Fold this sequence. Notes:
Elements: E1 6-7, H1 8-21, H2 30-43, E2 48-49, H3 52-60, H4 65-84
Antiparallel strand pairs: 1-2
Helix pairs in contact: 1-2, 1-4, 2-4
Pfam families: ComFB (PF10719)
InterPro entries: ComFB
Protein name: Late competence development protein ComFB
Amino acid sequence: MVYTIRNYMEEAVGNMIDKVLENIDVCKCPKCKLDILALALNRLPPRYFVTKEGELFEKMSELQDQFYVDIIAAIAAAAFIVKNNPKHD
């Protein structure tokens, strides 16, 4: 069996980014969204797992309201930075 290490926070932020950005006046092109995602992830603690059981344990943390509040705040702060410093080609 081959194991890989994954960061559950990437999945959680990726699942929420579009919903949060609906309410923020910021460019939503693929480059800006990835910049926002990267900045948001840098503000949040990683949640690494290797096994399916580990993934389930991390998903259980989603039941806490603070989990969502932290992600929304990180995305909003990152969107503000990208809005004021766009890196378009």
